[in-house]
Structures are given as structure tokens and as C-alpha cells.
Amino acid sequence: MVDRLFADAGLAALYDQMCPRGQRADFDFYLPLVMSARSVLDVGCGTGAMLKEARDAGHSGRLCGLDPASGMLAQARKRPDIEWILGDLASTGWDSEYDLVVMTGHAFQVLIEDDELRRSLAAIRSALTDDGRFVFETRNRLSRAWDDWTPENPVEFTDSEGVNVRMTRRVTATVDDRLVSFTHTFISPRWNQPQVSTSTLRFFDAASLSRFLIDAGLFIEEQFGDWDRTPVTAASPEIITIARKDATRPSRIPRNRAGG
């Protein structure tokens, strides 16, 4: 589950400026769930911004962030009162340890291959307590968000020292409207040349997503099409899912294939 975006330490340092808290509607959705859980695992935690905010808000339980990108974890580890682990779900062996597992920032879409996705979901199910919940979001394939990922739609922000940075995206390949590969290009007067990062994401519709969850022994408790909790439709930008561990139906993926 390694995405090339922000794996570099220099680009990772820009992430919180590019995605400032005031523009993170997802945090307003996730934080109440985090605050009500005794133990929380944030998969693909990035710089750890959400767990840091939860701790600042008074969460006194276990908070753990997992990310395969050393650049991101270097930013997260500046906060020592939270557990940070470099790695991915395939390298974990948790057993009924977390009341809540979350994947924010569309981290779920980095799980590209079927086997990788199945192993990751099996590891998540194993990590959950019997009444635990897995909460995540993925962009809705039917809304084709990547059509707007063109140089004509740049994002501009300032880095931690107030220097302007311009980011553009360009799609380089698509496979069946399911896998989308693209580049991020960052330009700043601080650099002699543009910084380029490559990524590939997987897009789901609600039906295909549901099949993977059921096979993993998870059932959908609630699902929304946007952060205002509207229902999922073909036009919805997101598929936001709250799933529970189905204690009556074990995962169809053998545990020894799930990295545990």
C-alpha cells in the first residue's frame, strides 16, 4: 500500500499546507467517531493530523497511526504522545485491539490489486474488537473525479515559510474507469526545477465495494454520498462507509494470507 505521492520527505512536509484543516470536511465527520472510541487505528495516517487533533481535544485512549511512507511518518513523529508505525496492513498482526479503524484522505484507494485489498480488509477485520467499526471513504467511480485532474485546475498554497507553491495534476492512464494513474507536479521559486510525484488510485462504485466488504466479514451499517450525510447516488462525489465486524460471518480470506 505504498503511494509515491509524498513518500519524499520534502513533499511530505507540504501536505498539511496543501490540505489545511479549514478545508477538511472529512475531519468534522471522523473526529466525533474517534473521540467516542477507546482505541483507534488510523491506516494511512499521513502526517497524523487527525490523531493529533483528537489528542489535543482530550482523547486519553490508545491512538495509533500506520503509514508506509517514511516522509509522512517523519512529520507525524514530531508528536511523541501517539503511537506511530511505519508499514502497511500486510505487516501487522493485530487481534481484536481497536474499537475503530479509519482510513481518511482517500487512502483506501491506494489498495489497487484485488489480493492486496482482500488481505488488507482481512487484517482490518482482525484488528477490530467484536463490536468495532471500520470507517473510510473512497471517491465514487461513477462521478469520474479524475476528469478534472488537469493542469487547467491548479491548487495554489504557501509552504510553512510562506513561499508560494503551485500543484497541478495530469492523468497519464486509465484502465476501465477503475484504475487511474496520474502525476502531481509541484512548482515553487524555492526549487530549481519542478518536483514530480506519480500515483495510481483505484475507484469503486457502491456495488463493487460492497462485495469486497462482505467477503471480508464486514457489513455496511451506514453509507453516505458526501460529508453532509446525503445518500449515495450515481452523482455522489464520495462513498463514505461505516462498516462493522460481522462476528457471525468470518472473513473468507484465511488469516495466514492476511499478513498476520
In brief, what are we looking at here?
The protein has 260 residues and is of the alpha/beta class.
Number of strands: 11
Can you list the strand order of the major beta sheet?
3-2-1-4-5-11-10
How would you classify the helix and strand content by structural class?
alpha/beta
- Distance, first to last CA: 16 Å
Q: What can be said about the biggest beta sheet? A: 7 strands, mixed
CATH architecture identity of the largest domain? 3-Layer(aba) Sandwich
Q: Can you tell me the residue ranges where pLDDT is under 50 for at least 5 consecutive residues?
A: 255-260
| CA-based shape | globular
CATH class membership of the largest domain: Alpha Beta
Helix content: 10-25%
CATH topology (level 3) name of the largest domain: Rossmann fold
Strand content: 25-35%
What is the residue-mean pLDDT, rounded to a whole number?
91
Q: What would CATH call the homologous superfamily of the largest domain?
A: Vaccinia Virus protein VP39
Number of H- or I-type helical stretches: 7
Number of domains: 2
- Strand and helix order: HHHEHEHEEHEEEEEHEE
| Radius of gyration over C-alpha positions, nearest whole angstrom | 18 Å
